[in-house]
């Protein structure tokens, strides 16, 4: 197992895209937080100071590029590309044969890939959140926005759990499809287009109103409940989409979906030809 981990760690460190995508995640995430923090600071200087609700809302929102309130977690989508490439490059360039020649145990190869992916991508996510938090503090600490609250620390945990599930979903999709283009399309199209479209259909057709509640258990909709942590985010979701499931229910649905895909990936990787 140690040899498999070393092999996979060397592989991910010697692929240039790992660094490019990681840098893009950090830069894009911190840039969004910088612009949001600067805009809020200027607005508070020119108008009224932040309300109590805004003080509690801003720190988790800025740390997650507003995913804690509404919208997709952009950094999560970016680091998921690394997961797709972890398997996609192997099949695209035929390197999976070399990998299985160097490490005979397919179990060890599969486990090592997922462990190394988790360590690498969660490190990128954590660095981005820390940098975003620091940027927010520099702009907004004079406006009484608190970046040392329990809610913010909990948000770190929620975001890391969400990112880990997302990364393993992306890795499983690439392993199952054995085509990085198809996997990229799947992990972007499903949460950003397919689930919202299906939910819109359920809401728009009167005869299907009762089925609208089912959409709350769509995997990525449930995953969003994990990352939404503050009162503002919950209020927005009630306003835009009616009642939602709780954070723990969302976690079990999203984690369960992740586990099913990973089990399928593991099973087929053991049985299929390279």
Describe the structure.
- With 274 residues, the chain is mostly helical.
- The protein has one domain (2-271).
- The chain has 11 helices and no strands.
- It has helices spanning 2-13, 16-46, 52-63, 74-92, 95-102, 106-140, 150-177, 180-204, 219-227, 231-241, 247-271.
- The radius of gyration is 20 Å and the shape is globular.
- The mean pLDDT is 86.
**Assembly status:** single chain
Number of DSSP E strands:
0
Low-confidence region ranges: none
What is the helix/strand order?
Answer: HHHHHHHHHHH
Mean pLDDT: 86
> What is the tally of helical segments?
11
Radius of gyration (Å): 20 Å
Number of domains: 1
Largest sheet entry? none
Portion of residues in beta strands equals under 5%
Q: Shape, please? A: globular
Report helical residue fraction.
over 70%
- Class inferred from helices and paired strands: mainly alpha
Q: Termini separation (Å)?
A: 20 Å
């Amino acid at each position: 197992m140690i040899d498999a981990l070393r092999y996979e760690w060397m592989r991910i460190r010697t692929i240039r895209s790992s660094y490019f995508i990681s840098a893009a995640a950090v830069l894009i995430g911190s840039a969004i937080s910088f612009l949001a923090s600067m805009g809020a600071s200027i607005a508070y200087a020119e108008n009224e100071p932040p309300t109590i609700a805004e003080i509690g809302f801003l720190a988790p929102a800025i740390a997650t590029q507003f995913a804690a309130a509404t919208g997709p977690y952009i950094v999560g989508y970016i680091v998921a590309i690394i997961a797709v490439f972890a398997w996609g490059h192997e099949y695209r360039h035929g390197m999976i044969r070399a990998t299985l020649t160097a490490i005979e145990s397919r179990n060890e190869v599969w486990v090592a890939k997922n462990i190394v992916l988790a360590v690498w991508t969660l490190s990128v996510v954590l660095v981005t959140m820390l940098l975003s938090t620091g940027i927010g503090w520099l702009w907004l600490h004079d406006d009484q926005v608190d970046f040392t609250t329990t809610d913010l620390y909990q948000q770190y945990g929620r975001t890391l759990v969400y990112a880990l599930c997302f990364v393993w979903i992306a890795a499983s999709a690439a392993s199952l499809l054995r085509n990085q283009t198809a996997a990229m399309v799947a992990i972007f199209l499903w949460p950003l287009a397919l689930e919202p479209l299906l939910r819109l259909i359920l809401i728009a057709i009167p005869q299907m109103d009762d089925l609208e509640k089912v959409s709350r258990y769509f995997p990525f909709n449930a995953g969003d409940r994990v990352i939404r942590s503050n009162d503002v985010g919950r209020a927005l979701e009630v306003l835009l989409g009616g009642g939602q499931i709780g954070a723990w229910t969302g976690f079990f649905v999203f984690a369960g979906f992740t586990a099913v895909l990973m089990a399928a990936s593991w099973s087929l990787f053991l049985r299929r030809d390279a």
